[in-house]
Specification:
8 helices; transcription; three-stranded mixed β-sheet; single chain; N-utilizing Substance Protein B Homolog, Chain A; transcription antitermination
Length: about 190
């Protein structure tokens, strides 16, 4: 399966100002979202998808719309190689989010505003939110602000509308509730 992102933003966001570890972590998060999306639309089992991503059969590249600099012609589509993901992080995110899917969906549904009922969420948005909420709840070593920014960057690679604001707001609410100490507040 190939994902098409709306611009080269994800490739650039993956590498700008980041060290190799951060780039590999960003790639793992993107690959995890892709795998969780595939699971949601019935394109394989968890272990089949983990194997496919880990051996490079799936997820090593994406198709990107490159705008015409003069603005005269339609964008052209080009294949963009992605950085190799941090395999350990990728596996933890996919296996963990898949195993905890029902609980994650409950958290997401409880946190959604009335403007965004569960039924309105596209499969890709659900995948981004599941990965993000899982990381916020189950990976305490990841600073919440880092996790939120990474998943907002992923959302921005696919969407330019309100979906990115939804991802940001929902993950922020979950983080502040689950890890208030990271925001200088106490649980209560």
């Amino acid at each position: 399966m190939t994902f098409k992102i709306k611009s080269e933003r994800m490739g650039m966001a993956q590498t700008q100002g980041k060290g190799e570890r951060q780039v590999r972590s960003a790639a793992a998060r993107l690959a995890a979202v892709q795998a969780l999306y595939s699971l949601d639309v019935g394109e394989g089992s968890v272990e089949e998808l983990v194997r496919a991503f880990m051996n490079g059969a799936v997820g090593g590249y994406t198709m990107v719309d490159v705008p015409d600099p003069a603005g005269i012609f339609d964008p052209t589509e080009t294949r963009t190689e992605l950085e190799p993901p941090d395999g350990e992080l990728f596996c933890q995110l996919v296996r963990g989010a898949a195993a905890e899917r029902a609980r994650l969906d409950e958290v997401i549904q409880a946190t959604l505003s009335s403007d965004w009922p569960w039924e309105r969420l596209e499969a890709l948005v659900r995948a981004i939110l599941r990965a993000g909420v899982y990381e916020l709840l189950e990976r305490p070593r990841t600073p919440p602000k880092v996790a939120i920014k990474e998943y907002v960057d992923i959302a921005l690679a696919f969407y330019s509308g309100p979906e990115t604001k939804l991802v940001n707001a929902l993950l922020d609410r979950v983080a502040r509730s689950a890890r208030p100490e990271a925001f200088g507040t106490k649980a209560g």
